[in-house]
Specification:
Layout lengths: L3 E3 H8 L3 H9 L5 E3 L5 E4 H10 L5 H4 L25 E5 L3 H14 L4 E5 L2 H11 L3 E5 L7 H9 L8 E6 L10 H4 L3 E4 L3 H12 L8
Parallel strand pairs: 4-5, 4-6, 6-7, 7-8
Antiparallel strand pairs: 1-3, 2-3
Helix pairs in contact: 1-2, 5-9
Amino acid sequence: MADHYTTLEVAKMLGMAVRSVQLMVDRNELEAWKTPGGHRRISRASVERWMTAHGAGGAAQASAVGTPVAARPPLAAPVGPAKGRAPQILLIEDSIHFQNLVGLIVQQHLPGVQLQVANDGITGLALYGQIQPEVLIVDILLPGIDGATLITTLRSHPQFARSHLIVVTSLDEQQREPYAFALQGVKVIHKPRLVAELPSALAACIPQAQVPA
């Protein structure tokens, strides 16, 4: 068995876009080197370590290359929303700057709404199952599991149907193409337009009548 994989092979194994795997390499989450022709080769051992750390232990050994093995941890047991509770927004975003910016927007425009924050997709999946938010705001580029993979994972769970989804991203339209499979029919806000567009997007998801005075 080979001691390394191509970027495409790892993307298929983890159920991610190729670009997400490239970013994982850039963040040193996976060990890689380049061939004389400039192609990445990723250490099999580092892939196995990542899969073990993210709840997919042993999958690399049990799977043949080319067989998709999505890094999809199960959602936490759903907790039904309490009667009269404030609407919930879950933000999955690893940038402190944009976490704070979304927090200010929510506080200013929807002060009765509770904002929960997760720094990565794995934590976000677990938190989603716990709080069942009315609105889910997801960045595309996240540590560990990208936003497109996270959205695809959530869509396989019936409870996701009750949430409104908004994607925020620094990627322009051309850069989003690798993630198009998850973005069809989804409200996407370019981060430079966040302040201008997010308030109205949230108001459409959470009518003022639902917000406690």
